[in-house]
Amino acid sequence: YPKGAGRVAFSNQQSYIAAISARFVQLQHGDIDKRVEVKPYVLDDQLCDECAGARCGGKFAPFFCANVTCLQYYCEACWASIHARAGREYHKPLVKEGADRPRTLPFRW
């Protein structure tokens, strides 16, 4: 992980979505009281959650949608079809960047 980053495991999907939606959580332990930003970590070597590689020749999915209505990895074909739907056109794909830092990618149809 990059310097200053950590990993959190959630006990259930509802807690994860609440943390991602709030974007920040307050951590308290002993005398420490810290507000931290919660962002999804973009993993390498993930198949598309929509087609499992069927629409992209088995290639790994380059895009991750961090919007709470998605929270999935997508190949280019599935990103284009899913995010052409009303209400999802404003979602921005995250891609893995050097030093394990995800970046937002402008996507044009």
From TrEMBL:
GO CC term, one of those recorded: synapse
Gene Ontology MF: a single term: mRNA 3'-UTR binding
Location of the Cytoplasmic polyadenylation element-binding protein ZZ domain: 34-96
Any one GO BP annotation for this protein: negative regulation of cytoplasmic translation
Domain of life: Eukaryota
Organism whose genome encodes this protein: Adineta steineri
CDD domains: Bbox1 (cd19757)
Key words of the record: Repeat, RNA-binding
Protein name: Cytoplasmic polyadenylation element-binding protein ZZ domain-containing protein
